[in-house]
Amino acid sequence: MKGLEKWIRDSTGSESTGFLNGGLFLESNSFSFVSLHNTKSNKGSSVSCSLRPRVGFLCVTLSVKDKGFDGEEEDLLEKQGGALNTTKHLWAGAVAAMVSRTFVAPLERLKLEYMVRGEQKHLVELIQSIAASQGIKGFWKGNFVNILRTAPFKAINFYAYEKYRSQLLKLTGNQETTNYERFIAGAAAGITATVLCIPMDTIRTKMVAPGGEALGGVIDAFRHMIETEGFFSLYKGLLPSIISMAPSGAVFYGVYDILKSTYLHSPNGRKRLQHMKEAGDGLNALEQMELGTLRTLMYGAIAGCCAEAATYPFEVVRRQLQMQVRATKMSAAATFIKIVDQGGIPALYAGLTPSLLQVLPSAAISYFVYELMKIVLKVEPE
Predict the structure, then answer these.
(1) What is the sign of the dihedral through the CA atoms of 360, 366, 371 and 376?
(2) Residue 250 contacts by C-beta under 8 Å, 6 or more apart in sequence?
(3) Using alpha carbons only, what angle is made at residue 163 by residues 180 and 203, rounded to the nearest 5 degrees?
(4) Residues with Cβ < 8 Å from 300, sequence gap 6 or more?
(5) Bridge partners of residue 144, in order along the sequence
(6) I need a surface site. Which of 89, 146, 171, 304 has the fewest CB within 10 A?
(7) How far apart are the first and last CA of the chain?
(8) Is the pTM for the entire model greater than 0.70?
């Protein structure tokens, strides 16, 4: 290499040489000097060729730029982290639904007896009747199907609310979500979950209705509805469901979030947040809950009660629509009028008492388990 560099200096009449990284050099009296340089950098690689007849100069440059892998790896890791966080968020909502629904399944069964079968017995008489005819298991009849319905429903509902609220916050540029944005996000979340999950709700309603025992399990009931009424029979009552779930979601999530925000901005709330910040990792999962155990349960119960009372008539109409067969199918408006004609306005609130008894603990437990699971699973804010 040193001999080659000496030859170049002698040929060019210069003590300095540009041959640092290797190349090809030719010398002649007619067209002087050709050099081929290959250089590399962290942003890519390039090849240059120059032709100089002592004074003249010709340069051809070929560049091949390689995209760095660091950016791609960061994007991939970010996507994987986002997908993992979404999965954990959905699981938090699903577990909350499983626990709360199983706990209040007997009350859910009583509510359906009043709404679907038109039961006229007093609550105590109805409890005795179910226990005598079906035993204790009768109070959990349809609970597995209910979990199959409510687990994905609540998972989507909770996640969608957080996502919609986050997006609205970005669009408006506010530092904190307004009450109006909370209600909008809750309504949108309710509609999203309803559209995706109503088929399971329809199947469950069919199974607990009179004659539903003959349909067998979930798969058999699904097959029966497809064969006898067509695929879109699974979406019977979709419109009243959306009309019901939009305000229900708005009230359920909006009221809870308003109560939570009000407390956290109060002196006691700020003091609790400061204490949690100072304690750091020394707190267990229950102690890390911003509202605490009792207040989370209480706010969840209030939110659930408000949502149920505000939208219960829509729920009654929806259940009746799901019970109809093709031969006697009626519109939502006609079904509403029929219910009022047969039982008056009180018929729209049939089963409200057991429904509230079911919703209060269900909503309380649902929010409590959801908030707890977010801490346990280390779910990041959306």
Answers:
(1) positive
(2) 183, 184, 186, 187, 190
(3) 100
(4) 256, 363, 364, 365, 366, 367, 368
(5) none
(6) 171
(7) 61
(8) no
